[in-house]
């Protein structure tokens, strides 16, 4: 079964964990009775954790055509002839409005209907509650046909297992892609000399500076690659220092940018080791490239977005160092204490750094457990971080059970 990432914004991410089947349609009938059958609507709806009747009805509302989903046969029909690309575009709009969290973009949400007949999406990852625009035609249908109440944790685990099976198919494809890239890289790095007389094969590795730089860029992350490339470039450029004034402005700018990057990363490392305060953490974020001249995120929403912009610097500073990860979490905690707006976004910050592999799961959980058991256990930081921690722990326990 061909799979694709849920959400158009994640279409280019080869390692995105949330996937759904590609839409398959079929035109049936002729004349006034022509209809479009979405063949795999049940599978698509299951991946989105939404009733297939919702997606079918949404197509009808948007196209101004009659639509019907048969619960017994699982058949989804929309009157008229509609091509797959058009229906797939409408499905993306449905995902944005009724599936993805408005806060973090995670599709792991649950539809809630309030006492006032309003529709909300509750995110299992960050805890954010999104308010759906009730002017949309589909909202009336959802209120009249609310989703079935959860029968228990077994059903939830069954859905997780089904999701994991689809993820395994995607991971298998990723592994094949990795293997193919390794084979190509191996052929590029190794020269084979074939002696036709005695069939001896001699393997030689290109040890030139250019080949070494190429291997470094392929194997390391973009941040650490810049750091290593800087050291090799400096060795090569030292004899040419006297001619730098006559060189290319772009080359000089690039070298200065790399030097600044290294300096900032080292500053983060030193500050974390010493124990960075809230004011120091704030000053550090403002000093990084890309920061606004007027940091409005300090007094309103935007702290999570600001941290996400600087994740490459933070990743380089805490790479493969558990102690530094805990120190970074404590620095974020100190910054959030006096800032009510930052406290509300703590779950979004944790998820952004977790998704970017800046923070590991066990360190986030350890930091949270120390916090709720410490002297500052009454802080609202732990209350706002709790939904994300529970999501982490539930995913871990189910993976162990599998």
TrEMBL record:
One family name in Pfam for this protein: eIF-5_eIF-2B
Biased composition (Basic and acidic residues): 147-173
Residue ranges annotated for the W2 domain, each copy included: 236-402
Residue ranges, compositional bias (Polar residues): 243-257
The entry's keywords: GTP-binding, Initiation factor, Nucleotide-binding, Protein biosynthesis
Family: Belongs to the eIF-2-beta/eIF-5 family.
Protein's UniProt name: W2 domain-containing protein
